[in-house]
């Protein structure tokens, strides 16, 4: 039981770490663009980053699908780990 629990946590950590960087890029680029736009600064490259176009590497066709699936998997696995934890240690 302990080994399986540890493996689930490792998988959750890897998925979350893998999806954290693109999520952070998406959040920051969208927020910074929305701040700069009313100031008259045209930073269209931020929108490209926001949608997964990083110049040399264009991930636009599947970037949003990856972000959505990674987010869903992270949330579901995190909730399951939390549910297991509360079953073992009810307070």
What does this structure look like?
With 91 residues, the chain is mainly alpha-helical. The chain has one domain (10-88). Helices cover 79% and strands 4% of the residues. It has helices at residues 2-36, 44-51, 60-88, and strands at residues 53-54, 57-58. It has a two-stranded antiparallel sheet. A hairpin with a 2-residue loop joins strand 1 and strand 2. It is elongated and about 55 Å long. The two termini are 21 Å apart. The mean pLDDT is 84.
Structural class: mainly alpha
Distance between termini?
Answer: 21 Å
Strands ordered across the widest β-sheet: 1-2
Number of strands: 2
User: On the 0-100 scale, what is the average pLDDT?
Assistant: 84
Largest sheet: 2 strands, antiparallel
The low-pLDDT segments are none
The ordered H/E elements are HHEEH
Range of strand content:
under 5%
- How helix-rich are the residues, as a percent range? over 70%
Domain module tally: 1
């Amino acid at each position: 039981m302990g080994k399986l629990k540890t493996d689930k946590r490792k998988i959750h950590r890897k998925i979350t770490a893998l999806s954290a960087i693109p999520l952070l890029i998406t959040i920051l680029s969208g927020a910074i663009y929305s701040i700069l736009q009313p100031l008259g600064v045209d930073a269209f490259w931020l929108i490209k980053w926001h949608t997964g176009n990083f110049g040399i590497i264009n991930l636009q066709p599947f970037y949003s699908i990856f972000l959505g699936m990674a987010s869903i998997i992270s949330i579901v696995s995190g909730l399951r780990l939390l549910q297991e934890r509360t079953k073992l240690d009810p307070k």
